[in-house]
Amino acid sequence: MIFGDFLKALGQLGDRRFRRVALIGVGLAFVLLAAVYALFLLGIQTLTPDSIDLPLIGPVTGVDTLLGWASLVLMIGLSVFLMVPVASGRATPGAGAPTAGRSMLRA
Hints:
The protein is mostly helical. It has helices spanning about 1-10, 15-45, 65-90, and strands spanning about 50-55, 60. The longest helix has about 30 residues, at about 15-45.
């Protein structure tokens, strides 16, 4: 059933209107993820000092760089983690996805 629906969706790739909607959706998701990450990174860089003085070790630099790279890994992991509930929520009946008994077009 799912594989057949996937093949039907691939069959619609020739339709210009379907391609437009699909590209807008993917593009918007990418742009919004990049914007949220840019704000998150700006917050990290604003709140993180250039160096931290640790007892017995002394000043430690590069903490902002380390947190910046760690935030990239975190955002990639969170984006995948948050996509699963959204995708499963759209596929369950009653969550807005059309089933065999319901039509996508309502008169």
